[in-house]
Amino acid sequence: MGKPFNALIVGVGGQGTLLASKVLGEAARLSGFDVKQSEVHGMAQRGGSVVTHVRFGDKVYTPLVEMGQADLIIAFEKLEALRWAEYLKPGGVIVVNDLEIPPIPVILGAASYPEAVYERLEQAGISVVRINAVEAARQIGEVRAVNVLLLGVAAKIFGFDKHVWEEAIKTSVSDKSVPVNLAAFNKGWEMQGA
User: Across residues 53-73, what is the average pLDDT?
Assistant: First the structure.
């Protein structure tokens, strides 16, 4: 593989970024790669900004993705895509859930939610894959599975076989959660065109 693949999974506390990074790390391990993951950085309580770093390759020495080095960012919320965009390397991709969750300063009226998020990302030369993951998850009957659905959207970028993802999901979630998470992943897999 040469250089490690660098991914950031970003969102808001309570959106399942940690589970998504766990599934990604397990899929990379099952594919034979050395994997390093960070713990959650940020305010993990519901509403705070959260980021997890996942790096995999032949040999990985540190879990942290440096600014300007991410191959892929999966953003569970639009503002988080904008907040972490400077971590993306030239030619990288951001998969964005088309969702706005106002942060506390916006709720309190001390700030405004940024306008034209997608336009700003595209003006910066960033390739954006925009997904209404909440609506897609609603179609399978489980809006809490947005995190795994977004992994499905991004899955082909990583290059792992589909059965590896399915195995990673089975080993990362409780037995009773496997069917809905597999359904969410498959819905995402069908939605993306990468």
Answer: 96
CA 105 to chain centre: 24
Written as six digits, the tokens of 69 are 């080095």
**Which is it for the CA torsion 147, 150, 155, 157, positive or negative?**
negative
Residue 51 forms beta bridges with which residues? 10, 41
Report the distance separating Cα 191 and Cα 9, nearest Å: 19
**Tokens representing residue 171 in the block:** 């080993």
Q: Give me the pLDDT at residue 194, please.
A: 41
Summarize pLDDT for 106-132 with one digit per residue, the tens. 888 999 999 999 999 999 999 999 999
Mean pLDDT of the chain: 92
Give CA torsion, residues 65, 69, 74, 79, to 10 deg. 90
- CB contact set of 46 (below 8 Å; sequence gap of 6+): 12, 13, 14
Say if residues 55 and 62 touch (Cβ distance below 8 Å): yes
For the chain, list the domains and their CATH numbers: 5-191 (3.40.920.10)
Burial status of residue 153 (CB atoms within 10 A of its CB: 0-12, 13-18, 19 or more): buried
